[in-house]
Design brief:
40% helix
Length: 259
């Protein structure tokens, strides 16, 4: 991680936790991360718990994200939730393009782009996910897939104001929920590749300022070595973010001593 970029550590709760379980987590978690002033800490609960988690986070160093968002402002779209609604619930971010949404809900690169743009327009920060499957990695297609996802995801998103509200999460699909983590070398290599591609899309400066998160089986045991990589600026955490103590350990990863 570079001192230029503020670390960003987010827990994606997926389809776990009722409202009361979410509030219990926050009660336990907030005191454990209270002294942390050098990182952004984000919790992404299900839509149903957004408001309660945002209330519990008020006045603390923790902020809230949704796990998805729709790209229309309002209308007859049964089951969908607009960026304005997410913002109104007290969240400041939304995740778009998570591989589970791409895989199980057929979310396309184009939909990811529309969602990101609608969210930015509504004043939400965006956590955009990209990543290759095991088959794609084995076929040596990682670069190709990441390039396609980035080019489509960042279509009509320009440097300056817009890109600075985006955080990019590299999540190799083969590492999500499998216990298999990318090695720090694999993560760093992909992050360097992504930053180069981003520079071509949004400019060198905006790409240099963007936080690139690693996601896929991040745990208290591997966060230190991942965060020691110069281009890993944070983490998107699934399973290990469901328990207050383990997520707090991740947030409290070992900081490097200054020069
Ligand atoms: P995991 O999930 O940490 O359980 O692998 C990561 C994610 O899906 O964001």
């Amino acid at each position: 991680m570079s001192p230029k970029r503020k670390p960003f550590i987010a827990a994606n709760w997926k389809m776990y936790k009722t409202v009361s379980e979410a509030v219990d987590f926050m009660r336990e978690f907030i005191p454990l991360v209270k002294p942390v002033g050098d990182a952004e800490i984000v919790i992404a609960p299900a839509f149903t718990a957004l408001r309660a988690v945002a209330e519990a986070a008020k006045g603390t160093n923790v902020t809230v994200s949704s796990q998805d968002v729709f790209y229309e402002e309002k209308g007859a779209f049964t089951g969908e939730v607009s960026p304005g609604m997410v913002k109104d619930s007290g969240a400041s971010f939304c995740i778009v393009g998570h591989s589970e949404r791409r895989q199980y809900f057929h979310e396309t690169d184009q939909a990811v782009n529309l969602k990101a743009r609608a969210a930015l327009k509504a004043g939400l920060g965006v956590i955009m996910c990209v990543g290759e499957t095991l088959g794609e990695r084995k076929a040596d297609k990682t670069g190709e897939v990441l390039t396609r996802q980035l080019e489509a995801g960042f279509k009509d998103i320009f440097t300056g104001g817009e890109a600075k509200n985006i955080v990019l999460a590299y999540e190799p699909v083969w590492a999500i929920g499998t216990g298999l983590t990318a090695t720090p070398e694999q993560a760093e290599e992909a992050h360097i590749f992504i930053r180069k591609r981003l520079a071509g899309l949004i400019g060198e400066q905006a790409a240099g300022a963007m936080r690139l998160l690693y996601g896929g089986s991040v745990k208290p045991e591997n966060i230190d070595s991942l965060m020691a990589c110069p281009d890993v600026d944070g983490a998107l955490v699934g399973g290990a973010g469901l328990e207050a103590e383990s997520f707090a350990k991740i947030v409290n990863y070992k900081r490097k001593k200054g020069p």
